[in-house]
Structure formats: C-alpha cells, structure tokens
Amino acid sequence: MYRRGGADLDVVGKLIEKDEAALRELMSRHGDELLRTAYLLLKDRQAAEEATMDAFVQAYRKIHQLKDPGKLRGWLLTIVANRCRMTIRTRSWRSLLPFAKMESMIEETEPGPEELLQAQWRNERLSEAVHKLDYPYREAIALYYYNELSVQEIAEQLRCNENTIKARLSRGRSKLRQLLEEKGDENESRT
Q: 180 with 187: CB under 8 angstroms?
C-alpha cells in the first residue's frame, strides 16, 4: 500500500501555520479516499460529500491535535467516520435516499463489454449487500477492505479492542455471505 509519509509531514507543518494552499493539497491527496469511505458508510453521495467537507474543515481547524503527523491518513479517516456516525444519528434510516451504485465511484480500466457487465453486476450486488449491513459491520468492512487499514489501525481509530474489530469483520463477512447467497437464490427463482 502506498504511504504518503514525508509529503504528509510537510502538509501538516503548513496546515499548522494555517496555509490554505496546504488544505487544498490535503484535499487533493485524500479527498477521493475519504469520499469513498463516507459513501460506503452513508449510502448517499450528497451526505458523503458533506461529511467529507466537514472532515476537512475540522482537520484544518484542529490540526494541532494531531500528535503524530505520520498518522495523518488514519486521523482523517477517523474524522470522516465520526462525521458519518453523527449524520446517521441525526436522521432516520427511513429518510435515506436510494444510493447510486458504488462502481460509478471506482475508476475502471477499459475491459470488454462482457467483463464490464459482469463486474458491474458483482459490484452492484456487493454494494447492495454492504449497505444492508448494520453500521458497525459496514464501518469495519469499509475501513479494512476499502481503505486497507489493519485491524490494529482500525481499533486505534475507533478506540476499541482489536478483538472487537475482528469480531465485527467476521460477523460482517458472514452477514455479507448470507446476503449474497440470498440474493443469488432470489435471482435463480426468478428465471
């Protein structure tokens, strides 16, 4: 996995000095990843964009609270996850709008039409299944698989025990498997 290391250290120093160009650079480097994470957690593109922007504003204002500049990426992911949690707490699940499919956010190479159709179908099924998970499982799955954080990093960011994260990942995978199998059975019975 690509680590930004030294470049992030420079940005953090500039952010502490309240350099707005550094904020733009931070947004350029981490914006897509934070937006994907927020979208996975919220299921709503507009809410994900708001959570991402709120996370950048909060990071800019509170950059002095970052104790280890080498952990900037994890710190930003924690902020966006917290913003998503707050968003979910403040609205009813019934008010969630249907979400756009996740594959539209993922850059694709140019596969053939058949490969594209199969990938789209798999992504739609997986996206729908991930969005049906309860928030703690969805959060663990998103941070582990989509953001490639380790169990230890997730536990640090969410301030909980590593075994709790392992349990959430295990239960989340089981629930995903079950949801995908149910969806497969539904499709077979329709044909």
A: no
